[in-house]
Amino acid sequence: MKKNQGFSFKKFISRTITIVALATFVYAAYGLVDILLDYYNNRQVLSDLQETFYDQVSAFDESDSDEESSEEKWQIRPGFETLLKQNEDIVGWITVDGTKIDYPIVQAEDNVKYLNRNFYLEESRAGSIFLDYRNDIRLIDEKNIVIYGHRMKDGSMFQHVTKFLDEDFFNAHRMIEFDTLYGHYEAEIFAIYNTLTTFDYIQTAFTDDEQFETLISEIEQRSKFKTDVDVTAKDQIITLSTCDYALHPNDSRLVIHAKILQ
User: Fold this and answer.
1) Alpha-carbon distances, residue 252 vs 196, 248, 258 (angstroms)
2) What confidence score (pLDDT) does residue 74 get?
3) 131 given a catalytic annotation
4) CA-CA distances (angstroms) from residue 71 to 65, 76, 182?
5) Does residue 214 contact residue 208 with C-beta atoms inside 8 Å?
6) What is the mean predicted confidence (pLDDT) over 104-108?
7) Among 234, 237, 245, CA closest to 218
8) Which of 21, 107, 164, 176 gives the lowest tally of CB atoms within 10 Å of its CB?
9) What pLDDT does 85 receive?
10) Would you say 148 and 129 are in contact if contact means Cβ atoms under 8 Å apart?
């Protein structure tokens, strides 16, 4: 009798372990499928936006910009009209040489709204590429234009910022194209580094030229690689910021800086 009881108990334990293992597998599989679907949806959204943008963008003669009146200067540029109808928060587009970074830029009243929302305001792990809420897209007096994006394991969003950690790649691909609703800009990358959020590399307001020059000096000192790009108090820079884990699981960032070419 006791032998049968022992056998039944062992059988019960064995079945329980099997059921728990199966449930764990199903849960993990569901989570994986959910992640893969999210990645797929994100790629589809980005692909549709790229098609819309590039299908509508037309030749834009920058040489005429100096002759525009102040009223015409702030007219919406080709390529953005349809996107503005889909989301009034769009403020620009960014393309980074040698990478998959070729995305719309949105801006909200804070730096939280688009952390986990795509261009259509749908929940998404990838979030959106977004401009710091403190920046003015007209860029009249902006010294540091800060743009944020997640690093996704499928290579999307700002994942390819990591490519610039390779010195050969850094030296070969230094150009960023930055389009806003009102203008087209090119910028040359001059720094990349890992940092903690305690370093205020996302500072956007400066009391004077000296304060901005102090930030530039510290950026250049932190950079993993040196360049001959001369950045002065008269210049404007673009900052790309993404999450990182090199220095801290939560407070580490990977940062690129580029000087806007006049």
Assistant:
1) 5, 5, 20
2) 81
3) no
4) 12, 11, 11
5) no
6) 98
7) 237
8) 21
9) 95
10) yes
The token pair that represents 243 in the structure block = 């999450």
Beta strands of 56-143 (E only): which ranges?
Answer: 90-96, 102-106, 130-131
Contact criterion met (CB below 8 Å) for 181 and 137:
yes
Phi-psi label, residue 30: left if phi above 0, alpha if psi -120 to 50, beta otherwise: alpha
More confident residue, 241 or 26: 241
Q: Is 205 left (phi over 0), alpha (psi -120 to 50) or beta?
A: beta
Choose the catalytic residue: 243, 246, 248, 260: 243
The pLDDT, as a whole number, for residue 59 is: 37
Assign 190 to helix, strand or coil: strand
In tens, the pLDDT along 165-190 reads 999 999 999 999 999 999 999 999 99
Please name the amino acid found at residue 255: V
Burial class (CB in 10 A: 0-12, 13-18, 19+), 234: exposed
The phi, psi pair for 162, rounded to 5°, reads -65, -25
Q: Can you list the domains of the chain with their CATH numbers?
A: 89-260 (2.40.260.10)
Residue 78 gets which letter from DSSP?
T
Query: How far apart are the C-alpha atoms of 201 and 193, rounded to whole Å?
Result: 11
DSSP state of 189: E
Per-residue pLDDT of 26-79, as tens digits, reads: 444 444 455 667 788 888 999 999 999 998 775 344 444 444 444 467 889 888
Is residue 5 pLDDT above 60, yes or no?
no
H helices of 61-128, where? Answer: 70-73, 81-86
The amino acid sitting at 145 is I
